[in-house]
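On clarity, I found the account of how folds are encoded harder to follow than it need be. What matters is that the chain and its backbone geometry are given together, residue for residue. The format is easy to grasp once an entry is in front of the reader. For illustration, here is how one protein appears when written out as sequence plus structure tokens.
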Amino acid sequence: MRGMMSYDLMETIRNTNEWMGASARAMASYPVWGLAPHPMFKLMSAWGRVTERSFARMVIKPDWGIRSIPAADGRDHLIEVETLLDKPFGALIHFKVQGRAPMPRRVLLVAPMSGHYATLLRSTVASLLPDADVYVTDWHNARDIPVSAGKFDIEDYTLYLVEFMRALGPEIHVIAVCQPAPLTLAATAYLAEEDPEAQPRSLTLIGGPIDPDAAATEVTDFGRRVTMGQLEQLVIQRVGFKYKGAGRMVYPGLMQLASFISMNIDKHAQAFSDKIMAEAQGEGSEHDHHNVFYDEYLAVMDMTAEFYLSTVERIFKGLEIAQNRFTVAGKRVDIGKITKVAVKTVEGANDDISAPGQCVAALRLCTGLPEEMKAQHLEPGAGHYGIFAGRSWRNNIRPLVLDFIDANSGTGPGRNAPQVRAV
């Protein structure tokens, strides 16, 4: 079967590297080598530890790791992650704060489906929890979804978002990070026509490719250079025998990870070299900056082939969102129909994935929205990850987003939020 041998070969290479790391770590850690105090053994052990951990992380879904938060009453409140809606390709989850009354602010974070798990937004979630009830789209790994579950492309993704928004009710505020920004805009426009009462109060789009042609990046250049036929031959594989989704056509997470690393190969090589030296000198720790970052960065998931290919063909090549020509189930979704949902865009001045200009294009498409309900922010010095995590997000962007939510909220202080609706 086409692609299955390639998929299993990639997994074999990953597994072999993990085994080599474990073997080197174990062999170089024997106490007897203390009788021959040569630095080679410490370097070998350090290389083994870093290599084993790195390749093992690639097939492990990270835990959210958010155990508790401080609240206004001066107590720490425990966090329970509960699933509100569970569908074959993704779930709607809620970070329930035990013992806390419902918050006036209710936020749906639309996580990217671009090779990493939704836990990539862990710090974003943690920063919002003290001030809001937080819901997240938790996308499933395509390799674990049986072929019998059917297809999942960008139209299905959009309809998932529509269902999640309907379930949460009209008092929700939506924040879409990176890849889902154009489809979240389309889902909002879909609701504006099909179910106006279910529209969110506000929509914040962070670093998303609404109009990829507005500013060229390496990502958009790649999309122009490669034909769809070439792309399918190059990157699409069939899930191997090890997983529940055996036989499903996917864009493998390992291949996406390779492309991520290749964009900044020198930076990553230096980071791993520094980590190995630190481990060899006894200066490494379990939760140092390197491990915290790469435990998440290296954990990747597969995307369905139809989702990846339709994203490239329709969002990047066809510019269907940018030109307001996107259709769902044969029906055109008119972004100009958004008239009651406040829209804000956030971009990073140094973003090399969704460059400044790509996301703010959403405001141009919202022709039916009054200017006073539109807002934009360009964060100086911030790269792609900095606009939703890290110092720029915490100190500058997060307060602006919360102010935007409050300015466009229909809930007063202390008003109980509506419950999740049945759909």
